[in-house]
Design goal:
Layout (H helix, E strand, L loop, with lengths): L4 H13 L3 H6 L8 E3 L5 E2 L2 H12 L5 E11 L3 E11 L7 E12 L2 E11 L2 H7 L5
Parallel strand pairs: 1-6
Antiparallel strand pairs: 1-2, 3-4, 4-5, 5-6
Length: about 130
């Protein structure tokens, strides 16, 4: 029986919101390639790189993240979710929204992320939030 995609997606959201790196890792591909394209256009290409950047991010206790599904397509062994999320780096900085596309593949009975694409809606807000611009 195929696992419920909505449950898998919600579990991934919770892993991010709770900064749970073990749960986060359990949602990633079992393969060697995982493209994670971040807001500035840089592409990380392996699960280990994606885990490393998320470990660093999860260690910061000041941010808040809240995602909502805008659109999804679920097939037999592949699924895609378009998410709009709100990110607030800290209490002193205004929140901003970003698009996120996850592509999942059914691997050994679990939905796992095989592609992660971020696109800042307001790149200048993103750049200010991470200290790239003032």
């Amino acid at each position: 029986m195929k696992p419920d995609f909505d449950e898998a997606l919600q579990a991934h959201f919770e892993a991010i919101e709770k900064r749970d790196i073990q749960a986060f890792k359990s949602h990633l591909t079992q393969g060697d390639t995982l493209y994670t394209v971040v807001q500035n256009g840089h592409a990380f290409t392996t699960p280990s790189e994606t885990i490393k950047i998320h470990e660093q991010w999860f260690n910061d206790p000041n941010w808040t993240w809240k995602g909502r599904v805008v659109h999804k397509v679920v097939g037999e062994d592949m699924a895609m979710a378009l998410i709009k999320y709100s990110y607030q780096p800290n209490k002193e900085t205004a929140a901003f929204e970003t698009w996120l596309v996850y592509v999942f593949q059914l691997q050994e009975g679990s939905w796992r992320i095989v592609h992660d694409q971020n696109t800042a809606l307001d790149f200048h807000a993103f750049a200010r939030a991470i200290g790239m611009a003032k």
